[in-house]
Amino acid sequence: MNYKLHSLVAATLAGSLMMGLGVNAMADSTFDLVQALVQKGVLTEEEAMPLMKGRENDISLADKKVEKAKSKVVLGDYINSITPTGDMRVRYETRESKGMGKSGADAKDYLGRGRYAWHLGLKTASDNDFFTEIRFASNSSSRSPNVDFAQFSTANSDGVNSKNGSALVDRAYIGWNAADWLTLIAGRQENQLYTTSLVWDGDVTPEGLTEKINYKIGNTDVFANLGQWYLKAKYDENTSNIAKNTQTTKIFPIQVGAHGQINDDSAYKVAATYYIYAGDKTTGPLGTFNPGNPASSNFGGATLAYGAPGTTGVNNLKVLEVPAEYNLMAGNLGMKVFGEYAHNFDADARAKNTGDVNLAKYGSEDNAFILGMAIGSAPDLKTWEKGAKAMKKRDWAARAWYQRVEAFALDANLIDSDIMNAQVNMQGVAARGDYMLADNAFVTLIGAHGTRINDNIGTGYSVDTSNIDTKTYNLLQADVTWRF
């Protein structure tokens, strides 16, 4: 049977069927009939196309239904994709902090431990421009997913080989691409700001609302990120028959910046972020920030305990942050110069509100900065700018930097908990190297050495080395990470 005869048979059958149907059903019946003839082998797809003219959307929908029918997972028509995500990391690290103990005598705290961490989540995308992510992480700390091997606690006192670990919801958000230039995100989310570890720990997930704006002007992307994020929710407390009500504390980052490509082999990125804090910042568990006074006989106390009043206070913070980077390709070698500067315009009041006359005079300790270089393998500029997420088997990258965080410059709740141990009034050098064992597995080596900036001011709380007013700090980490 030749093409003309095939078409004649198909047209006759289609015409006969349409004569017996109402007008509203004609188009759908024709589509179904031609589809059936193709499946039976009466017509080829090429022969069916002239009969299906104007039904391209139905063909696309039918193809999607066939693909979904092949899957054991049934998705709603509004779901475009569900993508599992996750990683597993094992680590051995050493931390050493030397300084003064609570008694005023010289003290040393040393940690040598094996640790693990994991993340497991799902991302969804839909035709109506909505997207979501829910991700779980090991540990119950908002500052770190790490869990120590054979970790001992009073809640689990099994002794040898005791196991302690838990999980939390690390991310849970809904996003909407409301326009080509506007994205809205609500929930617990990945940090949407362009920033560095100087100001933000990579494990901290802000909670609240974010608006992301992006315009392209020639070869330059002009962007803005606006956040309305919660730091501490409102709560009611009744202690010793004294009622206390604490307001919600929020942080409002306002960021504007630009990312431009100079030529095929070089690009830059720069932004300015201003942080506004609102709500009750000086009472309840947040306290009024106090990094500690080494000259005081009781300088330690609560100021060296993580989460205690005085260590997490966000009073008198009006911080301007300016991160920047310049990227350059030389063949298959990528290079980066990066830096960041931050200044607290209310540091003088932050120092005075410690309530310590010896600390009140150090309001000029109001600056923080980071400066470094990176080098590594990459096939092109765009891949190099994406960083570790885009690296493939046998790729490598190395970076080294210097950083300095003065006592009253930054919010100690946010800064990185590994490099300089999340402490203020610290300066030092750090280096990191990554090598890809496979497309989804890599090893990482990290080292850091820090010293106290001003010996007349304490360094605040430390996450892992306890009860030490740090003078020197050393960190070594060796990681193996597998991801999907």
Write up this protein:
The chain has 484 residues and is mainly beta. It folds into 2 domains: 3-70, no CATH class; 86-483, Beta Barrel (Porin), CATH 2.40.160. It has 7 helices and 19 strands. The protein has helices spanning 3-19, 26-40, 45-48, 56-70, 347-352, 357-360, 381-386; strands spanning 79-100, 106-126, 130-138, 147-148, 167-179, 182-188, 207-217, 220-232, 235-239, 242-246, 249-263, 266-278, 319-330, 333-344, 367-377, 396-405, 426-438, 441-452, 469-483. It is elongated, with a radius of gyration of 29 Å.
Helix segment tally: 7
The stretches of 5 or more residues where confidence is low (pLDDT under 50) are 13-27, 234-239
- CATH class descriptor of the largest domain: Mainly Beta
Give the CATH superfamily of the largest domain: Carbohydrate-selective porin OprB
Give a nutshell description of this structure.
By secondary structure, the chain is mostly beta strands.
Secondary structure layout plus pairing:
Blueprint: H1 3-19, H2 26-40, H3 45-48, H4 56-70, E1 79-100, E2 106-126, E3 130-138, E4 147-148, E5 167-179, E6 182-188, E7 207-217, E8 220-232, E9 235-239, E10 242-246, E11 249-263, E12 266-278, E13 319-330, E14 333-344, H5 347-352, H6 357-360, E15 367-377, H7 381-386, E16 396-405, E17 426-438, E18 441-452, E19 469-483
Antiparallel strand pairs: 1-2, 1-19, 2-3, 2-4, 3-5, 5-6, 6-7, 7-8, 8-11, 9-10, 11-12, 12-13, 13-14, 14-15, 15-16, 16-17, 17-18, 18-19
